Amino acid sequence: xxxxxxxxxxxxxxxSRKKVAHLRKAAREFEVYALLRSGGCPGIMYCKxxxxxxxxxxxTVQRLRYKDFHLASKPSLTLxxxxxxxxxxxxxxxxxxxxxxxAMESRGITTWWRKAMDFT
Length: 120
Known about the structure:
Radius of gyration: 13 Å
Structural class: alpha+beta
Order of helices and strands: EHEEHEEHH
Number of helices: 4
Distance between the termini: 32 Å
Number of strands: 5
């Protein structure tokens, strides 16, 4: 089984449809699953895939120069048993933080996410 890596990014906001389109293209190119909380403050991005894919996608986000970019959790091996399955490749968006939190809970990474977001 191929190990999965993941990363978490926090920004001031995600509202630019042009930047989101660029991230959508990069998610397909690097064959990663990317989840965005867009439409307001804060902007949150979660990425999961191969080590190289996640690192490349994070690099793409950095080059887009998002306001208050913060790599909350650097690309690292995902250890949660619930988070070991293959996600669909591509970029997916949510508009509410509660929905993003539910997505993290379903993957068994709520503690990791809360710590990275400084919610603890």
